[in-house]
Amino acid sequence: PILYGYFRSSCSWRVRIALALKGISYDTVPVNLLKDGGQQFSAEFKAMNPMKQVPALKIDGITLSQSLAIIHYLEDTRPNPRLLPQDPKKRAQVRMIADHIVSGIQPLQNLTVLKQMGEKKTEWAQNCIASGFQALEQILQHTAGHYCVGDEVSMADLCLVPQVFNAERFKVDMGPYPTITRINKTLLELEAFKVSHPSRQPDTPAELRA
């Protein structure tokens, strides 16, 4: 497998965690979202992913984009350890939380949107994340065990950790979100979350390395 991604992309990080949890070794091809006006806009990358976004994963003779589609494929083809609970209610809760982050928070504060916001980008990002986290904190109070849903690491957790990283980058006050903070801290102690961290990638700039 070959993963095309960017060290700080939360969508790329979700996939890196899934690959690490499932013990899938892969090669990395960095796509720098800032350099040369954004390498995701190159003709070569556009041919691979017309949406001009990371990540893209070449695996089993196909190329997939969109982080959750990639993770679902890995779940279907390499089911251990599972990232979706067997219980239908818990499975639905995992998907709900993942969608809440992937559709309801992350796109509103991604690079493309922030470029449009100019000087207000930090304030915009903080407001979008805080609004999403207020809802997410309430949801997690009903679903959480050690992790987002019960005591098994799931697809929801793969979405949570990169989003908290973004929140911290944009200096969001995490005080009102004790459940999110607790789960994030617990997850960051797991090896798969450590090795996939943005501070430990081949394309991480020297000054940001762990």
From TrEMBL:
GO terms for biological process: glutathione metabolic process; L-phenylalanine catabolic process; L-tyrosine catabolic process. This is Maleylacetoacetate isomerase. Its EC number is 2.5.1.18, 5.2.1.2. It comes from Chionis minor (Black-faced sheathbill). Its main location: cytoplasm. Transmembrane segments: none annotated. It comes from the Eukaryota. GO terms for molecular function: glutathione transferase activity; maleylacetoacetate isomerase activity. One of its GO terms (cellular component) is mitochondrion. Residues 87-206 form the GST C-terminal domain. Pathway: Amino-acid degradation; L-phenylalanine degradation; acetoacetate and fumarate from L-phenylalanine: step 5/6. InterPro entries: Glutathione-S-Trfase_C-like, Glutathione-S-Trfase_C_sf, Glutathione_S-Trfase, Glutathione_S-Trfase_N, GST_C, GST_Zeta, GST_Zeta_C, GST_Zeta_N. It catalyses: 4-maleylacetoacetate = 4-fumarylacetoacetate; RX + glutathione = an S-substituted glutathione + a halide anion + H(+). PANTHER family: MALEYLACETOACETATE ISOMERASE. Residues 1-82 form the GST N-terminal domain. Keywords: Cytoplasm, Isomerase, Phenylalanine catabolism, Transferase, Tyrosine catabolism. It is found in: Cytoplasm. Belongs to the GST superfamily. Zeta family. Its cofactor is glutathione. Pfam families: GST_C_3, GST_N_2.
